[in-house]
Amino acid sequence: MTGPLPDPAPTTPSTTPWSGPARRLFGSSLAARLLRVILGCYLVVAVAVTGVQVFTEYRSAHQRLEADIRAMERTFGEGLADALWNFNAGVLRGILRGVAEMPVVTGAEVRDEHGGLVERVGDAAGVQRWPALFDRPFERRFELVYTDENRRPHRVGHWIVRSNDGIALDQVKETLIVILINSLLKTLALLAIFSVVVHRMVGVPLAEIGAFVTGLDARTLGARPLRLRARGHHELHLLAGVFNAMAAKLRRAFDDNAALLRDLQEANATLQARVEERTRDLERLAVTDPLTGLSNRRALDEALVEAVREEGAGFSLILADIDHFKAINDRHGHAVGDAVLVALAGALGDAARPGDRLGRWGGEEFVILCPATDLASAQALAESMRLRVAGTEIAGVGRRTCSFGVAERIAGESVDGLLARADAALYAAKHNGRDRVETADAPALDRRSAA
Fold first, then answer.
1. pLDDT digits over 278-304, tens only?
2. What torsion do the CA atoms of 328, 334, 340, 343 make, to the nearest 10 degrees?
3. pLDDT (tens digit, 9 = 90+) per residue, 251-262?
4. Is the separation of the CB atoms in 414 and 377 below 8 Å?
5. How far apart, in whole angstroms, are the C-alpha atoms of residue 451 and residue 439?
6. What's the pTM value of the predicted model, to 2 decimals?
7. 310 is known as an active-site residue
8. Which one of 119, 208, 364, 408 is the catalytic residue?
9. If you ran DSSP here, which 8-state letter would residue 215 be given?
């Protein structure tokens, strides 16, 4: 800037934070110099004096605390050494408790000459009362030497007294409170100086800057420059010029950010679509057998409960089990066994009807849920599946067979009851020679259970 800035349009006094007589008291470029004087006086007088006083009082209290701790060696050391030498645990414990009850002690312990713990009282850390800078635990170690009747010294161990710097602050906290109150009064006096001196020197320019900034938003940023009405050409005018340059840069940055935001929104939409697709894949994997691609046990359990609830008694269940499957694994290996499971799952799926639900129950066992199907229809479906399986040629093992157990749900029957009857029918198919279909009804199941 090379000259005074032009005045902006007049502003109503009520639109700025300062009004009335205070507005006429504002000066110009002396603000920075006065601020340095006032802040310097405050920092030198208030901070330095307060800091020295607090440190001096704390140091003095800490030295007294140290002296009290050292005095304990003369007071209790001989008694502890004598009790430790004579293995008098009661006396040792009593002395330590007396030590721990002293105001300057948070805890104490005695150890033998090998470092083994003999007795401990109190809390090593104590209760924190002050900030960690001043409330720090410390300990002092004193040797225990017993002098026998021949005046020969014997080292019998050592004892440790624990204390905390916070105790020193507790002893001088009233003095510290007086010092802090004194500092507070100095601060209030300084605030009064600010209200009279600093306010009148920089108040109006800062108020104009504040009013200008308050009216800024993404639309108005950079639309009009900031101009101060105060006379002169001082630092606040330079600040206004810097602010105008910064506002222009921010305007350009906002425009760039808006374009970037659009790009990010497009990328986010793409990413969200991918996340949703991946979520659907994970949900599908959670209910799908990874080997055969059929519904897994978890999905079948849920489907069974839902089918029993919705279908009532008009619902049938088929259990299918591959015959001699263990022999396939033992003879050809698990890779071939997996191939057999995949091939026969495909054969069962080819024979199933559109409304049926086929899934792998576990191991070599499959389940077919047949809604709106009576026992005879379910038996016919199982027979067609048996024939389809028996006619399937599998590389390396030839043709295999399956046994089937069929049960129609009885009104009021639970899922477990229906499964038990179907499993009993499957057991009968295995027992009667395999590669066959057996059905189960309520009377037959009752007779089998009774047997």
1. 767 676 667 789 999 899 999 999 999
2. 180
3. 777 778 878 888
4. no
5. 18
6. 0.42
7. no
8. 364
9. T
